[in-house]
Amino acid sequence: MTIPRPQIYLAAPLFNDRERQFNIQLAHTLEEHACVFLPQRNGALLSELVALGVPGPAAERRVFDQDVAAMSAADFLVAVLDGGHIDEGVAFEIGFMCALGRVCIGLQTDIRRALPTGNNPMISQGLNEVCRSVGELIGRVESHVRAGALVHRRQNGRRHA
C-alpha cells in the first residue's frame, strides 16, 4: 500500500521577480518532503488571464476558484510572511486554512512587523507556528511528515489528521 505524500499549499506574495524566484526555490526545497501547490506555478495568474483577454471579473473568479480548490485539497499551509506588511492574499489563505482546521506554518525571516507586539492577532493566532528561517521551516515540515500528522484520511466523509 502506498502512503500518499502530504499536500502543501504554499501561500506567498508573487508580485515581483524576487518574490517569485524565492517562492520557486522554497517550493523545490519543500518538494523533498511533500507535494507542493504553488499558485504562481500550478494555478492561474490574474495578469496572464487578463493579457489573454479574459475579462477582469471572470479572471478573478478563475484564480479564486483554483486557489480555493487547491487549499481544500491540501493537508497544510506554509505561508511566507516577509515584507513590511503581510500580503493580503496570504492573509486570506491563512484564514481559510485555519477555518478548515489545517496546520498552518508561517515563515517570517523579515524582522519588520506591522504592530509593536508583532503580527496582527488574526494572523498570529491563525498560525500553529512561525519559523524564522528556511532551515527551521524544513525541520518543522519534516517533523510533521514523520509524525504522519498531515496526511488527511477520509473516513465516513470526515477528515482526520
Blueprint (SSEs and pairs):
Blueprint: E1 7-11, H1 17-30, E2 35-37, H2 39-42, H3 46-51, H4 56-73, E3 76-80, H5 88-99, E4 103-107, H6 121-124, E5 129-131, H7 134-147, E6 153-155, E7 158-160
Summarize the structure.
The protein has helices at 17-30, 39-42, 46-51, 56-73, 88-99, 121-124, 134-147, and strands at residues 7-11, 35-37, 76-80, 103-107, 129-131, 153-155, 158-160. The chain is of the alpha/beta class.
How does this model look, in words?
This protein has 161 residues and is an alpha/beta fold. It has a domain at 7-39 and 75-150: Rossmann fold. It is built from seven helices and seven strands. The strands form two sheets. A five-stranded parallel β-sheet has the order 2-1-3-4-5, with helices on both faces. Strand 3 (76-80), helix 5 (88-99) and strand 4 form a beta-alpha-beta unit. It is globular and about 45 Å long. It starts with 6 loop residues before the first strand and ends with a strand.
Key structural traits:
7 helices; 45% helix; disordered C terminus; alpha/beta; five-stranded parallel beta sheet; two-stranded antiparallel sheet; single chain; 161 residues
